[in-house]
Amino acid sequence: MDTYLVTGGAGFIGSHLTEALLAQGHTVVVLDDLSTGDKANLAAVWAHPRLRFVRGSVLDDRLVDELMGRVDAVVHLAAAVGVRLIVEQPLKSFTTNVRGTEHVIASAHRHGRRLLLASTSEIYGKNTGPLTETSDRVLGATSVARWSYSTAKAVDEILALAHHRELGLPVTVVRLFNTVGPRQSPAYGMVIPRLVRQAVAGEPLTVHGDGKQRRCFAHVADVVDALLRLLAHPAANGQIFNVGTAEETSIAELAARVVARAGSRSPVVLVPYDQVYGTGFEDMERRLPDTTRLRELTGWVPRRSLDDILDATIAEASHALRPVEPLGVPGPATEVPTTPSRLLG
Ligand SMILES: NC(=O)c1ccc[n+]([C@@H]2O[C@H](COP(=O)([O-])OP(=O)(O)OC[C@H]3O[C@@H](n4cnc5c(N)ncnc54)[C@H](O)[C@@H]3O)[C@@H](O)[C@H]2O)c1
Fold it and tell me: pTM here?
């Protein structure tokens, strides 16, 4: 059994992955600054004897290096995520997503650790697909804040693959498409948690733009399954993999489906992008993954449907209806000094 460092392990995907690694018998060290994550996401495993939690930042290169020395492999999920966060805090987001990843890659190389790096379908920008791993990137102007996320993740990928080619770093890049399910926060621009909470609360469902934009949503449990399969596969080293489903829906159809499945009476209203994200915001019409490469290597196919996802998210929202919180509430993690040796025991 191995010891994994999971950066961003108190986040949405990270907490599900941490649970799955523990269930497989591994030891997990979570490094998270709790900026968008929450210890509550790890509640089910908080007292687990093979879980260690370190509150700190991937921007702290000494901390990253100390932890890296104690593990066998690292899954790097920590990032500034969500269109709203990227648009409202572009500088902090870009720095986290480039410099933080640089530290993780350099440290993984120094210690000879296997690395799984989370990238994103935002890499493809406005390319309407179907998107294979070699599809073109089609981006707007650098002045449009949302493309900075795509660019930061592209820098991460380039850095990781250059370390593989020139220095032999065992690294796999996963381009995650829209991933949803329980514990995803509605606070940073994620559409399903927001629409579901609006429906459950009896509020109008706000669809951005004309609602004709098409997306595919994967259940987080299927995504975690893909990550575990790739971690177990040495042939995944040095490669990029799309992870996502091909079940497409327009956002207007999605909102109607949420209303129906939640048994809600809420109306659906269209809100222009400018009102939500300011002038000049750009979105893409369609985002459809081709996951042939992942399926051929690992046999992975998604097992949960969009209705499964909606039912799970509606059930969670019905049990604990929480208001959408304002952005950027938690202070910087460096305010809480961490002594890794002590926390690691
Ligand atoms: N959810 C999706 O649909 C999706 C799609 C594409 C890519 N991804 C990628 O998956 C990863 C996880 O995303 P998520 O959806 O779970 O989001 P999330 O916000 O729930 O998780 C990110 C975690 O990273 C932590 N974090 C942020 N900055 C940090 C820092 N400087 N140091 C340490 N921890 C820090 C946050 O507190 C949070 O727990 C990200 O890399 C993201 O780019 C997610």
Answer: 0.91
Q: Helices 251-262 & 306-319, crossing angle to 10 degrees? A: 50
Domain locations along the chain: 3-180+217-246+286-302+331-344
For domain 3-180+217-246+286-302+331-344, the CATH class is alpha beta
Measured by CA distance, the residue closest to atom 9 of ligand 1 is 118
For residue 41, the CA-to-ligand 1 centroid distance in Å is 13
Q: Measured in angstroms, how far is the CA atom of residue 11 from the centroid of ligand 1? A: 6
pLDDT digits (tens, 9 = 90+) for 301-317: 999 999 999 999 999 99
Any ligand 1 atom below 6 A from CB of 100: yes
Phi/psi-derived region of residue 233, left when phi > 0, alpha when psi is between -120 and 50, beta in every other case: beta
